[in-house]
Amino acid sequence: MAIPGSSDGLEVLRSGQILTQSNSWTALKFDGTSPSTATGSYTVPANHIITMLSIIWAERGNSAEVFHFAHQHGYVLIHQALAAYGTFVWNERMVCKGGENYQTVTTSTANVDILYSYLDQDWS
């Protein structure tokens, strides 16, 4: 993907959410809509650069959980503990380009909501 040398690009702050995440991998969606749980095929659209700003996992089922978060090239968080009714905030910046993805999963049947915010740089 070539980034133009002019100011033709567009930058938009966006957010998404995954409700009731459980033990099937779900990919984050980066088109301004929220992903369907247990759908791992979403990728960053072509000619886009996504900068993740923050991701929040919130346990809603009063049961301690363990979750994973991965980029298609490897794990970012593995066996991360999440207390009953607890919240985990990840606010490290990460970049993902067209065709790549991020996915998350819990290790057991769970009730975890995920909220995420990102900067979408559109060069299409």
Your description of this structure?
- With 124 residues, this protein is mainly beta.
- Strands 1, 3, 6, 7 and 9 form a 5-stranded antiparallel beta sheet that branches. A 4-stranded antiparallel beta sheet has the order 2-8-4-5, with no helix packed on it.
- The protein contains no helices and 9 strands.
- The chain starts with 9 loop residues before the first strand and ends with a strand.
- The chain has strands spanning 10-21, 26-27, 48-59, 65-71, 74-82, 87-90, 94-97, 102-106, 112-122.
- A hairpin with a 2-residue loop joins strand 4 and strand 5 (74-82).
- Helix content is 0%, strand content 53%.
- The chain has a single domain, classed as Nucleoplasmin core domain (Jelly Rolls, Sandwich).
- The mean pLDDT is 92.
List the helices and strands and how they pair.
Blueprint lengths: L9 E12 L4 E2 L20 E12 L5 E7 L2 E9 L4 E4 L3 E4 L4 E5 L5 E11 L2
Antiparallel strand pairs: 1-9, 2-8, 3-6, 3-7, 3-9, 4-5, 4-8
